[in-house]
Amino acid sequence: MTGRDLEGGFDAGGGITKLRVLNEIRRREAVARVDISTATGLSRGTVTAVTADLISEGLVIELEASEEAAAPSQRGRPRVLLALNPDALRVVGVKVAPDTIAVSITNFVGDVVARHDTSVQVKLREPEEVARLVQEGVDHALATAGLTLAQTAGIGIGVPGFIDHATGLCRWSPVFGEPDIPFGQMMAKRLGRPVLLDNDANLVALAEQWFGPRRAESDFLVVTVEHGVGMGLVLDHRLYRGALRVASEFGHTKIQQGGALCRCGQRGCIEAYVAEYALVREAGAFMPACDISDPQATRLALDALAALAEARDPVALEIYRRAGTILGIGLANLINILNPPLIVLSGRAMRTSHLFWDAIMAALKANAVGGERDLPRIEIHPWGDDVWARGAAALVLDRLYQLPQNGS
Amino acid sequence: MTGRDLEGGFDAGGGITKLRVLNEIRRREAVARVDISTATGLSRGTVTAVTADLISEGLVIELEASEEAAAPSQRGRPRVLLALNPDALRVVGVKVAPDTIAVSITNFVGDVVARHDTSVQVKLREPEEVARLVQEGVDHALATAGLTLAQTAGIGIGVPGFIDHATGLCRWSPVFGEPDIPFGQMMAKRLGRPVLLDNDANLVALAEQWFGPRRAESDFLVVTVEHGVGMGLVLDHRLYRGALRVASEFGHTKIQQGGALCRCGQRGCIEAYVAEYALVREAGAFMPACDISDPQATRLALDALAALAEARDPVALEIYRRAGTILGIGLANLINILNPPLIVLSGRAMRTSHLFWDAIMAALKANAVGGERDLPRIEIHPWGDDVWARGAAALVLDRLYQLPQNGS
Questions:
Q1: Cβ–Cβ contact A231 with B under 8 A
Q2: What is the CATH number of domain A89-206+388-402?
Q3: Which of A247, A255, A340 sits opposite B255 (nearest CB)?
Q4: Do B231 and A337 lie within an 8 Å CB cutoff?
Q5: Structure confidence at residue A244 (pLDDT)
Q6: Which positions make up the signal peptide (chains A, B) (predicted)?
Q7: Which of B242, B253, B366 sits opposite A339 (nearest CB)?
Q8: Taking the alpha carbons of B265, B270, B272, B275 in that order, is the dihedral positive or negative?
Q9: ipTM more than 0.95?
Q10: One fold for A89-206+388-402 and A213-380
Q11: How confident is the model at residue B202 (pLDDT cuts 50, 70, 90)?
Q12: Interchain contact, A243 vs B341, CB within 8 Å
């Protein structure tokens, strides 16, 4: 397969101009040709020709125009809106979490069409065995979708930790016992196809950028709270990966000298106060002890802690309050350094965001320069298992849009 | 005057191509035509034509070729190297510091050709009076250089604090008693010419980018320690100012919850441990009390503290050691978030960098993800009063290079 995949790119002919139009349609979700022309500066004739090609190639479809979409200036003739064709391609997305290997098949607009989850304590397995389990999960998910791997556009994999996206190397990850696991290469060899690997929080940022409600924003920052605390940074419509390709380890910035011990071995990391394991660890002072190296036990203990807090137990509430304060101080530091217009909070912990929210906002006001006046918008985005899958899909699509195109 | 100033741009004719060549010469300091061609991808014929124009316009000069520069392939004919003509233009640079108004006249390569300093406790004066003192300083410096304001390319002003570069508004600055001083407008009105205003640490980053030994680097970060702790961030050859235009307040990131009180009114800021006033304040435990709102007294007390530390006084050494540790933790946070390949330390405090260095490096190793292995290069760049002047010049030149050009 040479078109519309990581080996062939979109193979669209027309190159850069076509990608610009495709990108405009993607960002706006549903858009009239005239608005593409206005937004891109391309002539209406060019837009008409390019969109005709995109439609004939099956990448774009015309939506039935609604009454509301009819522009009065066009004398009642309803405006036809263009959108991406959801069925134009399929992407395989994988998330390797401490207790799950989740595989999904996603379409061109980020909807999950098939998925397969494997419960496993990843850290107890050898990396090669983890790779085998990922391969099995991919096979299962493809079978459910009635596809072969060759019929997909590519495979995107998210792994927590310090991941070198360019080489697919896991420099350090809480899911592997050892550093420097070449997991991208291992998977590419097993699957016989190119594989893209990235930090899991970067995937969430890509999911926001490609499919999120703020996809049209040029600059924003995503912070995820779950097993760990991650961050993805979008500057000028591009995910920023840092000059040394392992950027945005926000969870390991320090807000307390000699503070709480983190899984990374250092002290005072935000993660050591805010991640799920940190809440459960602190709750050990008054709840039954829990082995926080066991992800499932950690999740059960966290559910119990959340239930106590929902019942207004003051000690449980205080645990959430402190986590919110520390997270707020960390976010204020990000604001002071980067001054983003929008911060999106995401990750499983945001399901209980109401337990953190007041403490986060109070800490932001007390610690961001300019105080309350100059705060960026802080949004909590709806969270579901599909976010990671969408991110893995976006990782592949993002690369597809960048591959050299035929023509120009 | 309509050419080579903030109203007319370079007025170079040839537009973008000419600027690309000019920029290449600037970054390389002295470069042969053939190397410009290789670096820019422009044909040798184009480079020859464009450089001929630049020479005839007086922006570029030919250097006498040295023996070493002769390329063997050219059969002994010495290669002619091109460089910026230092005398092509003059820029006015101003730094408003708590105790000084420093004005300099700088040439096209950042050399200071005239300067005038006014000692004054800026905070005790009304903003309009500060503006008048700046105007007087500019007049003095111009007289020394034998120039009129109209013969300069423009005026760049650096002010500490939260400065909106786009509007010239000082949102908060330690040198003014009140927020929201439209100092850029005030100066433009007084001087009758466009004025560019920016945060003083951004000026140091621009000075590094334009005239520093690392000017060819695409990505780096400058941290300044002086009255305060500032930061400038260069990404992809551009100063990053943040989406809300007041970025990089690194000095006010927090590394200690409920920590030391900062001049900004918040607690636990890096600045509250590392800035000159913070060292003197801590030394108050064993040295004669010093009014840290008086910049001159602060500087004298700091000299006394440094002398004690140089004499290996253990308490004085400990004050520097702690400051180094806190600065190192802050730098590690920057590395964890942005992962820059190079950090440049600058500012007056770096004159005594040997008193901080070991503590900085120990804290970096203990707090950066990846520890010692993945640290960026950390360089202390020679520091002198000319750095700020060069930065103000770079602020003007940076804008000149961006102004729309005739032709293209």
A1: yes
A2: 3.30.420.40
A3: A255
A4: yes
A5: 62
A6: none
A7: B242
A8: negative
A9: no
A10: yes
A11: very high
A12: yes
Query: Do B346 and B224 contact (CB within 8 A), yes or no?
Result: yes
Residue carrying structure tokens 């959340």: A306
Q: How far apart are CA B263 and CA B269, in angstroms?
A: 9
B112: its two tokens: 């200071």
Decide if B336 and A252 are in contact by the 8 Å CB cutoff: yes
Question: What average pLDDT does the structure give for chain A?
Answer: 88
Task: Inform me whether the pLDDT recorded for B9 exceeds 90.
Answer: no
> Which of B234, B271, B369 is the best residue to mutate to test the A interface, defined by the most A CB atoms within 10 Å of its own CB?
B369
Distance CA A106, CA A394 (A): 10
CB atoms within 10 A of CB A288: 8
Q: Give pLDDT tens digits for B30-46.
A: 899 999 999 988 999 99
Local structure of residue B9 (DSSP, 8 states): B
Q: Tens digit of pLDDT for each residue in A145-156?
A: 999 999 999 999
Tell me whether residues B249 and A337 touch, CB distance under 8 A.
Answer: yes
- The average pLDDT across A4-29 equals 75
Suggest the residue from B250, B254, B343 to mutate for an interface test with chain A (most A CBs closer than 10 A): B254
* Residues in B touching A378 (Cβ below 8 Å): none
- pLDDT tens for A51-62 read 999 999 899 999
Cβ neighbors of A222 (< 8 A, separation 6 or more) are A201, A204, A205, A208, A231, A232, A233, A234, A343, A344, A345, A346
Q: What is the dihedral of CA B309, B273, B158, B91, to 10 degrees?
A: 30
Tell me the chain B residues in contact with residue A243 when contact means C-beta distances shorter than 8 Å: 218-219, 339-341
- The domain spans of chain A are 15-87, 89-206+388-402, 213-380
Confidence at residue A74, expressed as pLDDT on a 0 to 100 scale: 52
Tell me the pairing of strands A155-159 and A195-199: parallel
Is residue B68's pLDDT more than 80? no
Query: What per-residue confidence (pLDDT) applies to B11?
Result: 55
Q: How many residues does chain B have?
A: 408
User: Which one, of A356, A392, A395, A326, lies nearest residue A112 by Cα?
Assistant: A392
- B283 C-beta neighbours (distance < 10 Å), count: 21
Lowest mean pLDDT among A11-15, B62-66, B92-96: A11-15
Q: Which residues lie below 8 Å from residue B105, measured CB to CB, with a gap of 6+?
A: B90, B91, B92, B93, B112, B113, B114, B115, B141, B142, B144, B145, B147, B152
Give the pLDDT of residue A3: 61
Q: Distance from A266 to chain B by nearest Cα, in Å?
A: 6
Nearest to B339 among A247, A333, A336 (CB): A247
Q: Counting Cβ atoms within 10 Å, is residue A388 exposed (0-12), middle (13-18) or buried (19+)? A: buried
Using CB atoms, pick whichever of B329, B333, B339 lies closest to residue A244: B339
Shortest distance, CA A228 to any CA of chain B (angstroms): 14
CATH of domain A15-87: 1.10.10.10
What is the dihedral sign for C-alpha B243, B244, B249, B255? negative
Of residues B70 and B254, more confidently modeled = B254
CB A279, CB A305: distance < 8 Å: yes
| Six-digit token string for A390 | 């969408």
CATH topology of domain A213-380: Nucleotidyltransferase; domain 5 (3.30.420)
φ and ψ at residue B384, rounded to 5 degrees: -155, 170
Tell me whether A56 touches chain B (CB under 8 Å).
no
Nearest by CB: B369 against A264, A326, A366: A264
CATH 3.30.420.40 assigned to B89-206+387-402: yes
pLDDT at B244 over 80: no
What are the structure tokens assigned to A333, written together?
């530091």
Residue B245, min C-alpha distance to chain A (Å):
8
Q: What does CATH list as the number for B214-380?
A: 3.30.420.40
Share of chain B above pLDDT 90, in %: 56
